[in-house]
Amino acid sequence: MELLEVKKIMRKEFYMSRKLFIALCFLFTEGFCQTYRIATKFSDVILSNMSVGMVYSLKKEKGIPYTVENLSDEKKELELTIEKPSPSQLKENYEPIPDVSWITVVPSKFSLEPSEKIDCDIIISIPPDEKYLNRHFQAMIVVNSAGKPSATGIAIDYSIANRIRFSTGPRPEKILEEYRQKILSALDLEMAPMSLFIKKQLSLGKKIFLGKDDFPTIQVVNRSKNNYKIEFFIADNPKDYGSLAEYEPIPKEFKIKISKTKQLLKPKSIQDLIIELEIPNKETFYNKKYVFIVIGKLKGFDIPIEIFSRIYFSTEYK
Fold it and tell me: At the topology level of CATH, where does 37-167 sit?
């Protein structure tokens, strides 16, 4: 064979191998190849006020399954593992989980036919040690390919990672605001105003209705084109929601009732919340500043979604 022909063949093989290399890079970096498409439904879950020494099932107790779906055109063997986050994956104010054994996935290994999906349970077990109190942890849930090489002898590995963050105490303040902004941008839904100051001093010993007479109230604003089901309740600790320090959390003796705790928010709508408040006629409750938080928890989502509003008021002088 002449030297010129050898050079042509080598050049041809080089270009073929280069095209294969580019195609594989495109497959791994873009994930557009239909054959290997795997999807997860978990988002960026943020949990708070978890207790040390307790075991939590996100699927059973929180209604948050970890869903894996096979969008490809062939059967897939998959495995779920827990990993510590890398520095680039770790979110501000969080630390890597001390031990990945704290989190278990059930089932952790399975196969999915084309278009098939599975809801896995994430179980978090926090050791009963006081050194883990009031700390913020992050772990990564990773979906890996677990199949054997095909008949051609080629095996392509791929993985998808999702964050899970949880606190053994209140969520960090920055994370709370980040969480709220995600809700507003995604759902176009809010409780307004975020901080309501009632100027009129409230009387003791009688029922007061916010949203009636001369008393203002908060509103739920749905600017989207979707219906949302929402349930309202009063938060246990206002300090978790960034309330002003000079206002005390309402005492347990105060009676607060939301007229309609469950509502359907229609598209492009604004709804008033009628809140009944009764302050006992006791000496210690006169001339005080108080705050309580109204929480709206949305139903029908795979992650816990809350909106809230702070209500500040002062009681009358005696």
Answer: Immunoglobulin-like (2.60.40)
And the tokens for 77? 């063997």
The tens-digit pLDDT sequence of the chain (318 residues) is 443 443 343 444 433 333 333 233 233 333 333 445 888 888 678 888 889 999 999 988 778 889 999 988 889 999 999 999 999 999 888 999 999 999 999 999 999 999 999 999 999 999 999 999 989 999 999 998 876 544 444 444 567 889 999 999 876 766 666 665 665 566 788 889 999 999 999 999 999 999 998 899 999 999 888 888 899 999 988 888 888 989 999 999 999 999 999 999 999 999 999 999 999 999 999 999 999 999 998 887 645 678 899 999 999 998
3-state SS record for 202-257: ECCCCEEEECCCCCCCCEEEECCCCCEEEEEEECCCHHHHCCCCCCEECCCCCEEE
Residue 205, φ and ψ in degrees, nearest 5? 80, 10
φ and ψ at 187, to 5 degrees?
A: -105, -20
As separate numbers, helices (DSSP H) first and strands (DSSP E) second, the chain gives 2, 23
Q: Classify domain 173-314 at the CATH topology level.
A: Immunoglobulin-like (2.60.40)
Cα separation values, 223 from 99, 131, 184, 308, Å: 43, 44, 10, 16
**In the chain, which residues fall in CATH 2.60.40.10?**
37-167, 173-314
All residues at 6 or more sequence positions from 156 whose CB lies less than 8 Å from its CB, including other chains? 27, 36, 145
